[in-house]
Design goal:
With 244 residues, this protein is α/β, with parallel strands linked by helices. It has eleven helices and ten strands. The strands form three sheets. A six-stranded parallel β-sheet has the order 2-5-1-8-9-10, with helices on both faces. The chain has a two-stranded parallel ribbon with strand order 3-4. Helix 7 links the parallel strand 8 and strand 9. Helix 1 runs parallel beside helix 2. The longest helix is centred in the first third of the chain and has 14 residues. The two termini are 24 Å apart.
Length: 244
């Protein structure tokens, strides 16, 4: 199965919205792309405000909650801590098996991590270990403003350290209050990280819909590199090739 692992430079950077938007955009093109959030904390799987339900709703999926998510914890804490509060141990084998089950369901898959790349999931097992086991290229979602260069370059370095390819970086959530560093952050990340910034997405105020997040991605993100990682046999449209 072709896949992409989506991680953030931190919690709250908007990787769920970016993951859902990318999935919705590719599915709108007719590509059979699924999405998986194997571990989440801060909401139960059925909570409309949680990542699992946001992914299902905004990506336009018909997959069940049980398919998209394996572990969901109530406490808004790191998954390892939230799991311990509920006397649960997150099993590496169950998470990997859960993701592997998609091999017969969709042609390709976006797997969203939890928080940043070094977040612990279980004893001596972190998000980076999960990503390395899957072997998918990594899409990094980061904030657009001051501090993002440092956080993004550290994440890029760790992704490369575990032997994975950086598929690209998305700077998410710019708005009228974003500081002046936004003018140079993308070019600095590309220069010092040796990676491609695929675009900057705006903060979407108000109710979110599949159409809105899909439009955000289509308007602001170069999908060509993402598409090639997921479905390399599919020709890239000429306009996307020129942009990427």
């Amino acid at each position: 199965m072709k896949g992409l692992f989506v991680t953030g430079t931190d919690t709250g950077v908007g990787k769920t919205i970016v993951t859902a938007g990318v999935t919705a955009a590719l599915r709108h093109e007719g590509l059979d792309v699924g999405v998986c959030k194997p571990v989440q904390s801060g909401n139960r799987a059925a909570d409309p405000g949680g990542d699992t339900m946001k992914l299902i709703t905004l990506a336009g999926l018909e997959d069940s909650r049980a398919m998209v998510n394996r572990y969901a914890f109530e406490a808004p804490l790191a998954p390892l801590v939230a799991a311990r509060l509920e006397n649960v141990t997150i099993s590496q084998e169950e998470v990997i098996g859960h993701i592997a089950a998609f091999s017969g369901v969709h042609d390709s898959l976006l797997v969203e991590g939890a928080g940043g790349f070094m977040v612990p999931l279980a004893d001596r097992w972190i998000i980076a270990d999960l990503a390395a086991t899957l072997g998918f290229p990594v899409l990094i979602v980061a904030r657009p403003g001051l501090g993002t260069v440092n956080h993004t370059l550290l994440t890029v370095a760790m992704v490369k350290e575990v032997g994975l390819e950086v598929a690209g970086v998305v700077l998410n959530g710019w708005g009228p209050d974003t500081d002046q560093s936004i003018r140079d952050n993308a070019s600095m990340i590309e220069e010092y990280g040796g990676v491609k910034v695929l675009g900057m997405t705006p903060h979407l105020a108000g109710p979110l819909t599949s159409q809105r997040v899909r439009g955000m991605i289509n308007d602001h993100i170069h999908l060509g590199p993402i598409r090639r990682h997921l479905l390399p046999a599919v020709p890239t449209p000429p306009q996307e090739e020129a942009r990427s």
